[in-house]
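Why does residue order matter? Because the sequence determines the fold. Keep that principle in mind as you read this record.
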Amino acid sequence: MPPHNFRAGRVVLELLITLLIGLTPVVCGLLIMAWQVEKTLGESSQVAIEQTLYDVDSILDSLHNASNKVLNLAEFPCQKALPSLRTEVVMRPALRSLVLVRENRAFCSTVSGEYQLLVDPGSFFNQRLRLEPGNDVTPDSAILYYRLQEYPLGVLALTDGSTLQAVMQGIKARSTLVLQFGDAFLWSNGNVIEGDLPDHSEQHTRALSARYGYAVHGGYPTGFMWRELTSNALAILPSLLLVGVMTSAAVYWTLFRGRRLYQPGRSYG
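Structure:
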């Protein structure tokens, strides 16, 4: 092989090695960034779900305690029980109204007073919870019913969907949070959807309430992860490229250029 061809091939090989070594910190930096983004989003979604469970359980605890406190009032006529019922509602911010039930018939409400309405226990998730998009009083506002039953007496405690919505929005999570009560889903925007699973194709996490059995879903819609990776990559890419260029220059000078400068010259006789 002619000497100039050999030297040209060696230069190309040196440049290729230098380029590959320089790209190593860039590629490693991007891989670490992608791992950190995925890990951070997953942890953020899990923390948001756990906080939602805690807050919603606290609301349901309040409904349960109120129901348990007034359960014995279902033995009395509505007019006699109504003042105590309304006092209990005033004392609990999460409580919208209370309804007394006797033999699966609602007969006294803090909103409507004395009335008659058949209560179907089978319509309640776990015999205790039912989520509806609204009722006759507020048709456009979601309502969660909590049912406490010691047959023949019972109590229905109602809370607004906006109360649960405020819990999900107050967490300030980047993930989409959805509450599930049986086949009904309450989204963080307050909408109630029957039977449609949340669009959580990325980092989907689901947790159940140990006390009440409802579920909290958290996750991100399609494309969210890619947008996060792109945004973070654009932010750190200039720094990674600078490190790569400096690494390439140092490697080239140390391995190739420096060796060439100190290489002893040939003598011809």
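The chain has a mean pLDDT of 83.
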